[in-house]
Amino acid sequence: MMYYLCTRNINRIQTVMIGAIVGDYAGSAYEFNNTRNYDFEMIAPENSITDDSIMTVAVMDAILQSKSYGEWLRYWGNKYPNPKGGYGASFSGWLRSNNPQPYNSFGNGSAMRVSAIGWAFDTLDRTLQEAQKSAACTHSHPEGIKGAQAVASAIYLLRNGKSKDFIKRCIEKEFDYDLSRKLSDIRPNYRFNESCMQTVPEAIICYLESVGFEDTIRLAVSLGGDSDTLACIAGSIAEADRAYEIPTQVIDAAFLTMPAELQNIVEQFYLKFNIYSYGRF
Questions:
Q1: What is the pLDDT of residues 228-268, one digit of tens each?
Q2: Least crowded by CB within 10 Å, which of 91, 151, 228, 256?
Q3: Is residue 134 part of a domain?
Q4: Is position 85 within any domain?
């Protein structure tokens, strides 16, 4: 079943970027209240989109407007300065600065906002270049850039029909992430961590071990870490798997917490990049 977003209602057409937003929404209640319960409540009164979704849409809009990523991250970040969960201290300072400069971060913020880039460009080389640019305006540390590039690459490869095994080999080779670990081994000792190094590989493994979109999100949140961001990244990758369907009720719930002008950007991105041409329907 497909989804289409408009500013007044949510009709049944699926568009790109829903995976990241739904993951963010589903994990939002557990970011600072971790759960190891796979059967957690995905739709709860305290759930809402967070900074992850706002920054995801900011990158999308930068692509639509042919603006610099840094400029549009600042525009939307300052327009919505107090999202659920808040921005990190360094990012908040960057938003308010009169002379914003990269601050050598390797935090997972570069990876949670990058997913639009995995859909928007026609070659893997261009995807890598744009992911680097989207990260480097803030997260200029090599690990911050690597995290963004790994997520964008996984989405690009999936949307072009590559298998899980192919993606696993490619990401391990290009980014030196260990994706052979099992979630059953990771979960007992995994803790809240905001670095790319301990978020991005785990989010990718959640997708690789999953059997569907909802399963991906449940695996990510039940790791017990930075739940909204883990699920945002894992969900953004899982959406690009043509065999996966996103539960309709969770999409409806997530987008009801999103301002209409942000919904409209998602709609515009869908129309511009003709996502159905990738075999979605």
A1: 999 999 999 999 999 999 999 999 999 999 999 999 999 89
A2: 256
A3: yes
A4: no
Counted domains in the chain? 1
| Residue 231 domain boundaries | 4-80+90-278
pLDDT at 157: 98
46 in any annotated domain = yes
Judged on CB neighbours under 10 Å (0-12, 13-18, 19+), 61 is buried
Tell me the mean pLDDT in the region 85-107.
97
Residue 99 covered by a domain: yes
Convert the pLDDT of each residue in 34-91 to its tens digit: 999 999 999 999 999 999 999 999 999 999 999 999 999 999 999 999 999 999 999 9
pLDDT of residue 164: 98
CATH number for the domain that contains residue 68: 1.10.4080.10
